[in-house]
Design brief:
With about 300 residues, the protein is of the alpha/beta class. The chain has two domains: about 210 residues, 3-Layer(aba) Sandwich (Rossmann fold); about 80 residues, UDP-galactose 4-epimerase, domain 1 (Alpha-Beta Complex). It has eleven helices and 13 strands. α1 runs parallel beside α2, α1 packs across α8 and α7 runs parallel beside α9. It is globular, with a radius of gyration of 18 Å.
Length: about 300
């Protein structure tokens, strides 16, 4: 049986991944400092008998001990709020960059077979071409995006110097069950929560900005595919390959929830990217990754989850 450690395992993506992998026959354990985790996600791990160890990824000695028997490490632990990163960049560099350096070093010292790093489309910044492929220049617009790019650089460094085998997955806009409603949350979770509370969704900007939405189940499939692929030391975009206008997204959610009226608008937020859509042809070709859940199906699952 393959042993997998997931950092940030009590987070949105980490907890979904842990349950998915266990149901697929992997031996899974999670590491999380619980600073941003939801109680429901912690309970879910307990319900599924998935071990959760409370530790900070910057604690080199602790994570070394915890990951001793692991074949694969998925590094998903990170602070992820773009706006917060603009207000407090140092925390993002301390958590995301130093944390990634510690995890990569532990993987090298322990001879872990493969490190899967959960990166972000935020590394690209405002695209100069759409859809965005993996060779697109990186130009992050926020400390969050820069912290994810520096994490990639650290992992590539350890690979060059120490032979660490890795796969970097640049996720686009992930949504699904277990995502936070308060504080930082994906736009879909925020819009769904608004209509469930009888409020109009709030669009920041004109609503013509586009995003590429992918359901967390498809992300879990992509991560598992990265375990099995012979193509290591590669970067892959993980998205749906379809750009959706935020205004159209709001209207779709309102229609599915039978909510009358129009969304409301507020000022554009700093650090927001105007257009985003993934070119996923490389992931299709080398990982055999094909998203299965349509946006409408995924939205219905989120609406049901919050009912």
């Amino acid at each position: 049986m393959v042993n997998v450690a997931i950092t940030g395992g009590a987070g949105f993506i980490g907890s979904n991944l842990a349950v998915f992998l266990k149901s697929s026959g992997y031996n899974v354990m999670c590491i999380d400092n619980l600073s941003r985790s939801l109680d429901n996600n912690v309970r879910l791990l307990s319900l599924k008998d998935i071990p959760l160890y409370v530790a900070d990824v910057r604690d080199c000695n602790k994570i070394f001990e915890l990951m001793k028997d692991c074949d694969i490490v998925v590094h998903a632990a990170a602070l992820i709020d773009v706006e917060e990163s603009l207000r407090d960049p140092v925390s993002y560099f301390e958590n995301n960059v130093v944390g990634t350096a510690a995890v990569a070093k532990a993987c090298v010292d322990l001879g872990v077979e493969r490190l899967v790093y959960i990166s972000s489309a935020a590394v690209y910044g405002d695209p100069i071409k759409i859809p965005v492929d993996e060779d697109h220049p990186t130009n992050p617009l926020s400390p969050y995006g820069l912290s994810k790019l520096l994490g990639e650089n650290i992992i590539e460094f350890y690979s060059k110097i120490n032979g660490l085998k890795y796969v970097i997955l640049r996720l686009f806009n992930v949504f699904g069950p277990g995502q936070a409603i308060t504080g930082y949350a994906g736009v879909i979770t925020k819009f769904v929560n608004c209509v469930k509370c009888g409020q109009r969704p709030i669009i920041f900007g004109d609503g013509l900005q586009t995003r590429d939405f992918i359901h967390v189940h498809d992300v879990c499939c992509a991560i598992e595919a990265s375990f099995k692929s012979s193509h290591v030391n590669e970067k892959f975009n993980i998205g749906s390959g379809k750009g959706v206008k935020i205004l159209d997204l709001a209207k779709m959610i309102m229609s599915l929830a039978n909510f009358d009226g129009d969304p409301s608008f507020a000022s554009r937020r700093s650090g927001d990217i105007r257009y985003s859509c993934a070119d996923i042809s490389k992931a299709k070709r080398l990982l055999n990754f094909y998203p299965k859940l349509s946006l409408e199906e995924g939205l219905k699952s989120v609406l049901n989850d919050l009912t």
